[in-house]
Amino acid sequence: MSFSLASTPKPSQLFLRGKRNQTFKVSCKISSNDDQNVEINSVDRRNVLLGLGGLYGVANAIPLAASATPVPAPDLTTCSKSKINRDEEVPYLCCAPKPDDMSKVPYYKFPSVTKLRIRQPAHAADEEYIAKWYLYFYERILGSLIDDPTFALPYWNWDHPKGMRFPPMFDRQGTALYDERRNQQIHNGTVLDLGSFGDKVQTTQLQLMANNLTLMYRQMVTNAPCPLLFFGAPYVLGNNVEAPGTIEIIPHGPVHVWTGTAAGSTLPGGGRSHGEDMGNFYSAGLDPVFYCHHSNVDRMWSEWKSIGGKRTDLTQKDWLNSEFFFYDENKNPFRVKVRDCLDTKKMGYDYAPMPTPWRNFKPKRKTTDGKVNIGSLPPASKVFPLTKLDKPISFSINRPASSRTQQAKNEQEEMLTLFNIKFDNRQHIRFDVFLNVDKNVNADELDKTEFAGSYTSLPHVHGPNQTNHIATVVFQLAITELLEDIGLEDENTIAVTLVPRKGGEGISIGGVEINLASC
């Protein structure tokens, strides 16, 4: 299913400011063990953060209006089937039942909490805990079924080396937690790739762990010093340009890609894979590990705020008052506002603490000594617009200011921005960005000071009448810290290298700039 306006962007962050007279179609996922009629009462905040909003009725991927009117709960009468591609329909319809009068659907109220439900890391789950999971997925629903109000979803803590493998509790054939539509690479304790783009990185497991910790540091610390970058930029009605937040780009999307079947392979039972189940938006919720994965993304929201600085929740009323629609464990409908999903303890749950080694994993090794020869590189004006990123490219680019004071850095972040990026959003893509290196850089080793970040995208399906599959994206990287670490603070011009990792022949980039922004 999909939302339908003039055109539909992919799900991203929720700065939801829509007009109430607009209609949009509902996007939903179902679980293979689901009766297709219920939704959890205890809302997963990760869904609010990324705009996915649970099984039914979230305001998913809605372009934002310039008006100051929060987006209401979706119009369920417009729910319909979507297409995987031009010729293949999604094989099921998962529209939620429509209440007779949406205006009478009550708003969510914080539950009465006598004891917090504590979400545990999945890799450490014991047999008693795993047995409970065989009944159902969601905390409140499951707690009701087994008469255990303290039961909590586990989280797949892929941000810690001990959790950087597929959780064993989900890999037991013949159980309700097993999904045969997974990539074969997940078995036998293989280390996952938090930047996965569908192809296996040819490196050691130790190096892959180092890459993962580096990606976490870049996404949670370096590139997310403020809400604008962590959550992403707002959508504006009539402008479908996306500027996704760091947590959505990595690790959210790549964990989906790594877990799902290899695109183009043969699915169990026949048929061509489009990344099912986890590797495609339409089918991701069919895999029980989906909820375990999202539980950890939700945890990252809390971890990000605990780092400090400007890392706080958004305060815009339009965002706080935007609405979601759910069914609870008793099949009763209710509406939820974003403002009610910001404090997990008020919602009745918290996370068992785990070390976060990525916080101190700032890259210290350098690829090169000194400064790259800028004179040997073409200026950005000679490289862009770029029609296809089918090979690594290096270019020089001017900075708006050099030798900035600490006060100036505190007030404004220096950002490298790639704009008007276009690609087919039905395909996997990824490219990496480096500073002060040439196009011969080893992109399989990310734990270097010069690595700035990566852009990835998870394939997703469209409405039955949608023909435009080209996404338009703005990609921003905070580079203040990198310039300090590399020793380029006093330089007026720096070198940038883009390295395609997947789908580069289908990626075009309109331009690039470095600017200063109060984020």
Automatic annotation (TrEMBL):
It catalyses: 2 catechol + O2 = 2 1,2-benzoquinone + 2 H2O. Its cofactor is Cu(2+). GO terms for cellular component: chloroplast thylakoid lumen. SUPFAM superfamilies: Di-copper centre-containing domain. Keywords: Copper, Disulfide bond, Metal-binding, Oxidoreductase, Thioether bond, Thylakoid, Transit peptide. It holds the Pfam family Tyrosinase. Residues 287-298 form the Tyrosinase copper-binding domain. Its EC number is 1.10.3.1. One of its GO terms (molecular function) is catechol oxidase activity. It is an enzyme of class 1 (oxidoreductase). Belongs to the tyrosinase family. Catalyzes the oxidation of mono- and o-diphenols to o-diquinones. This is catechol oxidase. It comes from Capsicum annuum (Capsicum pepper).
